[in-house]
C-alpha cells in the first residue's frame, strides 16, 4: 500500500511532498480512531526491545534521525509510527531560511536522497514553544548547529546558546558539525576546534541541575586518522557518545546517470549508497575504542538486515531517515520484529 502511494508522491517535488505527507499524518491521527489504528499497524511494545543507553531508557532501539522534524512540530504525531526515540533539528540560535530551493532531490535508482537544506529552521526559541506541548513519553533528542552567518571562530557561542535554551526540553543533545551544507562547518571536526567546542558544552552541562547526555554526529567521509582523533576527543572530553554517520559528499558508487547527479549539484547523499560506509565507520569506532562509548548507527538502513548489520558492528541504537521515506513506517515495525525474532 505504501509503495503504491510512494510511486505517486515521487512524481512531485521532494520538499513539497514532505510537507504534504506530514500534514496528512497529522490529519489521519486527528480523526477518531486514527491514533489507535497507527499504534496497531506500526507500534511494537515488548520489554525485550528496551535499551539502556547513556543513562536513558529507550522503548526500542529504532529512532528517527534529525532533519525530518526540524522545528519539533511533528514529534507527538511521529511517536505513533513505532519509533523508540525521535531527534529534532538541526536547530540554530536564530531562525534561518536555509539554502535556495530546490534543495531536496531523489535518486530513485539508488534509493537515495540528495539534500542541501542548509539548516533551515525557525530557531531554537520557536522549537521550545512546540516542545512545551509534549504529549509523548518517547525520548526526544535535540540536534544543534550554528547559524550560517556565524564565523567558525564564534561557533562555540551558537552551540552554547542553543544548548542552554533547549536544555530543559530534550533528553539528549547532538552536536552537528558534519553537515556538508553549511559553508566551512565540517572544519569544526578538526581536532583542536572540536575539542574546544565539546569541552565548552560539557562545562556548561555541569552548571545544570540535571545533566543531559551529549553526543557528536560525524561525517562518513573522515579518514581513519581523523576517526582516531574522534575517539581521542570523545574519551578526553568524556562526552556520552557518537552518531555515525551524517550524509556523504561522495558520488563514486551511484547507479544514477552521471548527468542527473551533475544537474542536481552539491549536497549530502543519504540512503543506500551510504549503507556500507556508515557500517564501516561504526565498526572502526567500536573496535578501535574498545567499545568505550555508545554509538548510534545511521545511514542507509532500508531493511531489517541493514539494521542488524549496524547493531552487530557495534551500534547500541539505530536511526532511520531515507529508509523511512522509501519504505514507509512499516520499516520500524519490521526491524523491531526482526530483533525480537532473533531473541527467540
UniProtKB/TrEMBL annotation:
Question: One MF term in GO for this entry?
Answer: dihydroorotate dehydrogenase (quinone) activity
Reactions performed catalytically? (S)-dihydroorotate + a quinone = orotate + a quinol
Active site: which residues? Answer: 179 (nucleophile)
Output the SUPFAM superfamilies linked to this UniProt entry.
FMN-linked oxidoreductases
What GO cellular component term, any one, is given? plasma membrane
Domain Dihydroorotate dehydrogenase catalytic residue range list: 49-343
**What's the EC number here?**
1.3.5.2
Under InterPro entries, the record lists: Aldolase_TIM, DHO_dehydrogenase, Dihydroorotate_DH_1_2, Dihydroorotate_DH_2, Dihydroorotate_DH_cat, Dihydroorotate_DH_CS
Pathway(s) where this gene product acts: Pyrimidine metabolism; UMP biosynthesis via de novo pathway; orotate from (S)-dihydroorotate (quinone route): step 1/1
This protein's cofactor list reads: FMN
Residues bound to FMN are: 66-70, 90, 143, 176, 217, 245, 271, 300, 321-322
Q: Which residues bind substrate?
A: 70, 115-119, 176, 181, 246-247
Q: Name one GO biological process term.
A: 'de novo' pyrimidine nucleobase biosynthetic process
Q: What Gene3D superfamilies is this protein classified in?
A: Aldolase class I
Localization recorded for this chain is: Cell membrane; Membrane
Membrane topology type: Peripheral membrane protein
Task: State the UniProt keywords alphabetically.
Answer: Cell membrane, Flavoprotein, FMN, Membrane, Oxidoreductase, Pyrimidine biosynthesis
The subunit field of the Swiss-Prot or TrEMBL record says: Monomer.
What is stated as this protein's family in its record?
Answer: Belongs to the dihydroorotate dehydrogenase family. Type 2 subfamily.
Q: Which NCBIfam families match?
A: PRK05286.1-2 (NF003645), PRK05286.2-5 (NF003652), pyrD_sub2 (TIGR01036)
Role description: Catalyzes the conversion of dihydroorotate to orotate with quinone as electron acceptor.
Name of the protein in its database record: Dihydroorotate dehydrogenase (quinone)
Give the species this sequence originates from.
Answer: Taishania pollutisoli
